[in-house]
Amino acid sequence: MTRALAVSLNVGDAEPLAAFCQALGVPYVLLAAGGDSPADLGAEKVLRLDGDIPPADALAALIAQKADEFDLIVGVAHMAGKDVMPRIAGLLDRPMVGDIVEVLSAAERRFLRPIVAGNAFAEVEVSEGAFVASVRATAFKSAARAGDSPTETESAPSQGATKRVSVSEAEGGRPDLAQARSVVSGGRPLKDAETFEQLIGGLADVLGGAAGATRAAVDSGIAPNDLQVGQTGKIVAPELYVAAGVSGSTQHVAGMKDSKVIVAINTDPDAPIFDIADFGLVMDLYDAIPQLIERMRG
Amino acid sequence: MKILVPVKRVPDPYAKVTVLPDGSGLDTAALKFEINPFDEIAVEEAVRISEQREAEVVVVSIGKAECEEQLRKALAIGAHRGILVETDAALDSLGVAKILKKVYERESPDFVLMGKQAIDDDANQAGQMLAAMLGIPQMTFAAKVELLDGGARVTRETDAGQETLEAPLPCVITTDLRLNEPRYVALPGIIKARSKPIETISLNDLGVEAECRVRVMKLRPPAPRQAGRRVQSVDELVEALREKGVLGS
Ligand SMILES: Cc1cc2nc3c(=O)[nH]c(=O)nc-3n(C[C@H](O)[C@H](O)[C@H](O)COP(=O)(O)OP(=O)(O)OC[C@H]3O[C@@H](n4cnc5c(N)ncnc54)[C@H](O)[C@@H]3O)c2cc1C
Ligand SMILES: Nc1ncnc2c1ncn2[C@@H]1O[C@H](COP(=O)(O)O)[C@@H](O)[C@H]1O
Asked: Do B165 and A99 touch (CB under 8 A)?
């Protein structure tokens, strides 16, 4: 690999992308298309797209046009990255290695990635020639600071055939799930949205963290979609992960197993979540969480 | 109207999957195989559309002869006809997309509805690659699909919430879990599916070669995470977390 194009689509992408390029030892240009664009992470250049970022077809077309100079195009494996990076690979007929968690050998082009909901890790090798990649942000947390990259801007392309007709984003207030230092997740036993907000949201707030949820909680309308943690939701690795009323299904665990300290609160002493928890409390969450909130306030 | 739905044969998503001791693959000996859950949702959605209006649902699976089981399951849900592209070659998502492109060109569907991700390789790539190679729009991670006159509207999940997109047909739509809940298929449906047609074709027939430029060299089991200890009370928990230094102050 001689030169990479790192595509930052969300705030917080630049650092893991820089860390990955550093791990590979490849110089890179940072393209900020909706994501952050710090100038102190050693990029040769920072190119910022100004204006609304269009849906994947128009954005991928723009990036593919710039591809000649780069034999690696890399993004972060969140929803935005999963939408657009494979489309770039398809446009360019370049193979793609997704969800990289470790560079095993830059020379052999060998990478590690989780498969089957984290039940196995595959060592994969990508053939000669240019390729596309995505990385798990949780696995490339910090990059070395270097230099002062020159910044250029260019206007974002207009929408192509696909039109965005509306956007609804959860109102902020809490730190982003993917970035938060602590995460409190709730599962099926949370009765309704109000109870979820009061208990899970309440504990997240006193910890200064984010709220998360299982698919069961999301499906029953207790928690919004974008809080789902797991194989098909968000991948998180905070300092502290509190799982309350979460059984510990493979699919959920795939999204939080790399957290530094895991706490499980569950009434069932045999719940699988206890097998991976550093601290397990067999207790009704309706008793435990209010007490925890009280203690943290006090 | 014609809807093309690719379906992949994958290990039962609720089974505990382990790596063979020599790392050469997954231990599949005792596993049941199913339709990839996201593809089953795609089949369900396509069948619901065909129940509302005139539409043919064509399902296609790429792999060994046993993929016929998953095609039969899709036919039992209500798909009309199946195509088995029989091959035992290793494929990456780009390789799959290239084969699907040939099937698309042969069938000329109005759109493609498929899973966002195969739960074995967890790649989440083939749909986007197919759309790119066909030069048509993609609407991924659909939580809601509505057909418009000559187009489709999709409400999809994003990192920050939801958005709604519209695109003209043909396009590729990939499904998220929340799109629908696939029906339970009762015996009459299964019996009826036995007489629905499945055509078996080869890569040769399609004029495409198997391609796999991302090769799996070896599998490793995940690093074990050790269970810690039980705490008896909230006070003991808070004490333990303070000692670990994860409570901030
Ligand atoms: C293809 C596929 C992808 C999936 N992707 C995801 C994913 O990304 N994320 C995800 O989370 N799931 C995912 N799932 C679903 C997953 O398999 C589980 O069904 C889900 O995680 C279960 O959620 P839960 O733990 O909230 O519910 P349950 O499994 O029902 O567990 C509830 C737990 O709460 C405990 N409990 C009950 N009452 C109390 C109380 N008062 N106090 C304390 N504890 C209590 C119970 O003992 C139990 O352990 C996926 C499934 C499939 C098939
Ligand atoms: N062998 C296959 N046969 C049919 N469809 C497939 C196959 N492999 C992948 N697909 C389709 O592509 C989607 C995404 O797969 P992947 O990129 O492997 O995660 C799946 O949900 C299927 O719809």
From this structure: no
